[in-house]
Amino acid sequence: MKTLFCIVIAGILSLIGISLYAQSYKKEGNTFIQQPRNASRQPVKETPYKYSDTKGNVYTIYITASGTCFINKISKNSGKEYRYYLDAEISKEVAKAMGIEYKPKVKADK
């Protein structure tokens, strides 16, 4: 009886897992085009503002839909581009100037 119960539970969980990883697509003519599952990042907008670091490098500031500002830096070790998020004060000021409401990220208590 326990084995039958375990088999049924395993079957149900596998069906749930399959539906979670199902791909979405749209059909255009005879072509099926795969759609991304989730937008992992918010859409960003380039601002007319610049950010200068202590080494004198000047970067363009980008802003997300929630008003958070960042710059794109390149890693010295891997050479990959990554986002360097700016302080809340800078984000608030740029968001206000761009007419975007700043929504601070709420950190969960541990």
Short descriptors:
single chain, 110 residues, alpha+beta, 4-stranded antiparallel sheet, two-stranded antiparallel ribbon, elongated, 27% helix
What are the SSEs and their pairings?
Layout: H1 2-20, E1 24-28, E2 31-35, E3 44-52, E4 58-64, E5 69-74, E6 81-85, H2 88-98
Antiparallel strand pairs: 1-2, 3-4, 4-5, 5-6
Range of strand content: 25-35%
Mean pLDDT: 83
Biggest sheet architecture? 4 strands, antiparallel
The strand count comes to 6
SSE ordering: HEEEEEEH
List the total number of helices: 2
Measure the end-to-end span. 41 Å
**Largest sheet, order of strands side by side?**
3-4-5-6
Task: Give the proportion of residues in helices.
Answer: 25-40%
Please tell me what the overall shape is.
elongated
Which residue ranges are poorly predicted, with pLDDT under 50 across at least 5 consecutive positions? none
Rounded Rg: 22 Å
Structural class: alpha+beta
Quick structural gist:
By secondary structure, this protein is of the alpha+beta class. It is 27% helix and 34% strand.
Q: How does this structure look, described?
A:
The protein is an alpha+beta fold. The chain has a domain at 44-98. Helices cover 27% and strands 34% of the residues. It has two helices and six strands, in the order H-E-E-E-E-E-E-H. Strand 4 and strand 5 (69-74) form a beta hairpin. The mean pLDDT is 83.
